[in-house]
Write a structure and sequence with these properties.
Mean pLDDT: 95
Number of helices: 16
Strand order of the largest sheet: 1-2-3
Bound molecules: adenosine-5'-triphosphate, magnesium ion
Structural class: mainly alpha
Radius of gyration: 24 Å
Low-confidence stretches: none
Shape: elongated
Largest sheet: 3 strands, parallel
Number of strands: 5
Distance between the termini: 42 Å
Length: 364
């Protein structure tokens, strides 16, 4: 049988989605969805994972389940083509995590660089919740329960994918060919691998409060762009400016297209020309920020408007999620039945266990 091409990817409902999610994964998902090249597409909200570091704040996760669903729909995820579901509604994922726990060592988990950074960021020090520490295992279950071949995500997810691949190899080696090794699909544009925050910090992240949200109003976007981190040594317009680490230029790398220059700054042919002028000196931050603001508004306005339309019918959004969970659960249940068979714990699937055990005792 030809292997199906299956996409799985998701987000934690810990806040509304931001432009880092958009360039890192969401924009790509919509393109892949509409390419027609994939047999199945699963997009999910990792609410169980969100609870691992928000266990005392269930209300936050509950509210954001709808916010994230609205962001998906606003960006063009189409429930007719992609199954959108919620992690906690698929108990098979917990079961698979439970089996996977035995295939990973504590020291292997401790080596995960993304988890290391996240632990520092959250000031957990020694009081790390076990669930948080082990979330890469649960994430491997999320991916493999759907036999995903392709996982479009940002660069911070690379260690998770590597962990998932190791688990699959180990599982298949012990129990026979059952699970599928997933491939990571990183953004092609280097600026999108890990979009920095508006404060210049390494990663735009809901938890750091340095985000431009997809649902921000035009005014908010304008204000956030105007107050963005640039080159702190570029004080006078005539000073030569630095591009590296200059967030405004990183965002231009992520968002600008040649036609934007024709439209908003016809005196420059391309981003390279603009960068060269900035480096030479004589180009003020405000002019570059104005260009970025115009480009951001052009990209975000249709998303914002579609979101407002979907907000008018929340029961329909809830129903879409409920149906998505049903479809996803069926797919995961199928894989779990194969997993149980491979692990020889499918005692009551048919009569073979009774027959084999009866024969064993009769022979004694
Ligand atoms: P949290 O702070 O709660 O972890 P987050 O902002 O890191 O939230 P996630 O839900 O963990 O968001 O990530 C969802 C997806 O978005 C992942 O594929 C991740 O790689 C991608 N992503 C998140 N932030 C960025 C970013 N700044 N640049 C590129 N991709 C990103
Ligand atoms: Mg994250």
């Amino acid at each position: 049988m030809k292997q199906e091409k299956i996409i799985l990817t998701g987000d934690r409902p810990t806040g509304k989605l931001h432009i880092g999610h958009y360039v890192g994964s969401l924009r790509r998902r919509v393109e892949l969805q509409n390419s027609g090249l994939y047999d199945k597409i699963f997009i999910f909200e990792a609410d169980g994972q969100a609870l691992t570091d928000n266990i005392d704040n269930p209300e936050k996760v509950r509210q954001n389940v709808i916010e994230v669903a609205l962001d998906y729909l606003a960006c063009g995820i189409d429930p007719a083509k992609s199954t959108i579901f919620i992690q906690s509604q698929i108990p098979e994922l917990c079961e698979l995590t439970f089996y996977f726990m035995d295939l990973v060592t504590v020291s292997r988990l401790q080596r995960n660089p993304t988890v290391k950074t996240e632990i520092q960021m959250r000031n957990f020090e020694t009081s790390i919740p076990v669930g948080f520490f082990t979330y890469p295992i649960s994430q491997a279950a999320d991916i493999t329960a759907f036999k995903a071949t392709t996982v479009p995500v940002g660069e911070d997810q690379e260690p998770m994918l590597e962990q998932a691949r190791e688990i699959v190899r180990r599982f298949n080696h012990i129990y026979g060919e059952t699970l599928v090794e997933p491939n990571i699909l990183l953004p092609e544009n280097a600026a999108c691998l890990r979009l920095p925050g508006t404060d210049g910090k390494a990663k735009m992240s809901k938890s750091l409060g340095n985000c431009i949200y997809l649902s921000d109003s035009a005014d908010e976007v304008e204000k956030k762009v105007k107050s963005m981190y640039t080159d702190p040594n570029h004080i006078k317009v005539t000073d030569p400016g630095q591009i590296e680490g200059n967030t405004v230029f990183t965002y231009l790398d992520a968002f600008s297209k040649p036609e934007h220059f024709e439209r908003y700054l016809p005196e420059y042919q391309s981003l390279d020309e603009l960068k060269a002028h900035y480096q030479r000196g004589g180009l003020g931050d405000m002019k570059v920020k104005k260009l970025l603001a115009a480009i951001m508004q052009e990209e975000l306005e249709p998303i914002r408007n579609r979101r407002k339309e979907f907000e008018k019918d929340i029961p329909a959004v809830c129903e879409m999620l409920r149906q998505g969970c049903e479809v996803a659960r069926e797919a995961a249940a199928q894989t779990l039945s194969e997993v149980r068979r491979a692990m020889k714990i499918n005692y009551f699937d048919d009569d073979s266990f009774v027959a084999e055990q009866t024969a064993r005792f009769a022979a004694e």
